[in-house]
Amino acid sequence: MTHTDDGALVRLLDGACDGEERSLVTLHLETCGSCGARYQELDRRTRLVSESLRVWDTSVRPRRRGIPRWLRAAAAIVILLGIAGGVRPVRAWIVDGARAVWTAVVGPPASQVVQQDASSTSVPAATVTFVPAGDTFVLELTSRQREGTLLLATSSRETAQAEISGGAGREDLVVLPTGLRVVNDAASVASYAITLPRTMRAIRVVIDGEPALALEPGGATSRWEIDLTSVVDTARAVSKGGDGSFPQ
Amino acid sequence: MSGFDGSFTSLYAEYREPLFRYVARYTGDPDLADDVVQDTFVRLDERPPPDRHALRGWLFTVATNLARDALKVSRRRLGILQEAADRVPCGTPPPDPVTNLERDEVRERVRVAMATLSEKERTILLLREEGFAHREIAEAVGTTTKSIGTMIARALDKMARRLEPEVE
Question: Which of B30, B45, B110 sits opposite A61 (nearest CB)?
Answer without folding.
Answer: B30
